[in-house]
Every structure is written in C-alpha cells, then in structure tokens.
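To close the section, here is one more complete example, presented without commentary so you can practise reading it yourself. The ligand is histidyl-adenosine monophosphate.
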Amino acid sequence: MNIKALKGFKDILPDEVGFWQLIEGTARDIFHRFGFAEIKVPILEKTELFARSIGEATDIVEKEMYTFADRNGKSLTMRPEGTAAVLRAFIEHNLQAKQPVQKLYTVGPMFRHERPQKGRLRQFHQLSCEVLGSDRPRLDAEVIAMAWLLINELGIKVSLEINSLGCPDCRPLFKDTLVEFLHQRAGKLCDDCERRRHTNPLRVLDCKNAHCQEQYVAAPSILDHLCSGCEEHFGTVKESLTQLEIPYQINSFMVRGLDYYNRTTFELITDALGAQSAVGAGGRYDGLVEQLGGPKLPGIGFAMGMERLVLLLQQQEEQGNTPSSDLFIAALGEEAQKLAFPILHGLRKTGLRAGMDVEGRSLKSQMKQAGRANAAFTLIIGEEELSNKVAILRNMGNREQEEISLPVDLLQWCTELTAKITTNQC
Ligand code: HAM
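Output:
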C-alpha cells in the first residue's frame, strides 16, 4: 500500500509555490519597511512554555498540541504558534539590551491537532510579528496598519474587527458580571459553554452554537467595563486607525483563543473561506514577557495564516483577477521559434515572468496555452509578422492589440517591453 501524507499535513506542489513566494516576498518587504527584523526559532520547545503562555484552559493547550516525551522522558511540544517561542528567545538572549523597542517577525510551520477542513490544517504556516517594549496605543494602530497594508498589497479583501479585552484591573470585574450572567443561564448552554463557564468564561462569547449565540445577545460587554486607562488606550487606537483611513468594526465578542491578550485585540476576517474566517489575528499581551520570566515589558503582535492567504489568492486567480505570468510568446514555425528563443531569455533577464510553447503548435493551441498560463500579455510572431519584421502584442485582459517592431538591439528592446508590460499591469 502507498504511504500517504498524514491527515491535515499537506504537500505544497509546484503550481502553488508561486503564491507562497509572492506572499512571503511581499510580507518580508513590508515588515522591513516597518523596521522589523527576522528571527528564526525552533519548532520544538518545552511543553511548559506553551502551557504557561497560551493558557492551561485553552483549546490549544487542552486538546490540540502535539506533545510527546523525548527519549529522556522530557515533555516536548511542536509549537502551536510563534509568539511564545519568539518571546522565549527574546528573554534568553537579552534582546531588549540591544534596542528599547524590538520588532521581530518569524515565518514557518505551526502544529495544532484540529479537525482538518478547508483552510484548517494540522501543520499550517504563519507570518508572525511581535513588537516588544512599548505600550503606546499608536503602536497598536501601526501594527494593525502593517497587517492591513500586507493584505492590501496582496490584493485581498478582508474586514478588520477590533476589541479591547481590558487589563488585570478591569477584566476581573467584567468576568464576575459575565459569570453571573452565565450562571443564570445554566442548563441552557451547549456542553462546551457549560464547561467553559467554569474554566474560561470569556471564551463562551466565541461559541458558534446558534442557540448559545441567541443567549449571548444580552450578555454584558467588556467595552462597558473598561477602566479609564483602557478606555483611553482603546480610544487612541480607534482614532489612529481613522487617521490612517483604515476601516474597522468593533466586535466586543472577540475574545481570541489564547489567554495572553489584554487591551487591543484584532482579527482580519474574510467571508470567502467558510468557517475559517480569520486570515490573521493578534493583539496586545502586556504581561506575557514577565510571565515567562523576562523583564516587565509590554508587547503586541499578530499572525497571518499563509494557507488561508494562498486559498484567497487562488480564488482570485480563478476569478481571473490576477495574472500568474506577464507574457506568453506564441511563435509559429521554426524561424519564429528561433527568433523568439533569445527574446524569451532577454525578457526573463529584464524581469518578466515569461513563457512560450517550444513545440511550435498551431496558433489556436498556443493561445489556449497562454490562457492556461493566465498571462497578462501574449506576443504573437507568425510568418506574416516575421516577413514584416513585427510582432503582435495582445493585452489578454482587454483584448486590445498593437504591432511592435522586432528587436534590432535585443537588450534595449527587452528592457523597453518589460517596462511597458509592467506599467500596464499596475
Ligand atoms: P491565532 O489566532 O491562533 O493567533 O492564529 C493566527 C492565524 O493563524 C489565524 O488567524 C489563522 O489565519 C492561522 N491559523 C490558526 N490555526 C490554523 C490552522 N489550524 N490551519 C490554518 N491556519 C491557521 C496566534 O497564533 C497568535 N500567536 C498571534 C499573535 C502574534 N498574537 C500576538 N502575536
């Protein structure tokens, strides 16, 4: 019997890899523009790192971690997220000594034993960003703005939801009010909520059960229980987002699945992926560095799920929104093929994603191939064009075409055509 990949673990095949490279390349470019530096941390960590940071009573720690004893009997866990590991490294290497505010990002696989479905895997990849050392609300807006810019540069449509979870001063009061509210509804909630009402009451607000959601319409809102410091903080975050013209909705039911958050939380939501609506999410975690044995330093960050970004880009491509190559050369006959060969190489050298049919098939089948390659432009060189020393450049989007002269100076010709195609696609 053939051995197959594990359930929830996915091979990334060549026709998908382009999306991954586009996402990672765009993300790195934006993160560097915002002053972030990359950090690479191990996939395996001591189990207690995640139990202490994510929270003992969360789904992740209770039932989703890949935990096992190594050959010496030590309990190890394959990281379910990036934040805890990055903070462990930050503390271990005393990085705060280098810079008062550290901006770090990491890219890589994470592991959660969840029920696999579209956009939800057991091995998935995150682009994960952390800023350590400042509690300024404008920083929250800056971090959200960076995530927003990345999504925009990828051409993806999402909505932004924000909330404040308060701080250790005001949240306990809200929690008491919520527990009392839930107590009055005891026996009317789903099994998960009945359990969580004792173990992790805030999480009930996130329940997807329609009956529970009906009950929670009347639930108290954290936003009515913020202390003056948290209210002011959240006010500045909202004001700064407005200043940057980033549209947001307030969702006071957003509680997040990890316990380390306080104050600002946010999610980037899509309705194009069914139940897996969060493309990215994050928030502030001011006590976490200290909780992990480090100095008293505030922090904020977010992570984006790369599989979900890939799915959205693929959907867009299926709808014909994003060309996956710049140019396809349709050269008819041996003489045209010979002429096109250095042109193809020249255009690739000057920066185009270009391809051609090397078998020299009929025009009809080459145009079909250009369609399959989802090329933005096609350059057609047939017998007639050859004798007139021209080629036809067809814009595959609006079907407009023009005649252009064949190259005399190949390099200059390729540079000019590359510039023309790149600007016409922008
Ligand atoms: P999270 O909400 O657990 O937050 O995950 C962030 C993103 O990772 C989600 O919005 C989703 O896109 C993706 N993701 C999560 N689980 C899966 C899965 N099973 N399959 C596919 N994609 C998934 C965190 O992990 C925090 N560490 C984020 C953060 C960084 N907060 C502060 N700094």
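Once you have examined the tokens, check your reading against these statements. Residues 260 and 285 are 6 Å apart (CA to CA). The chain has a mean pLDDT of 93.
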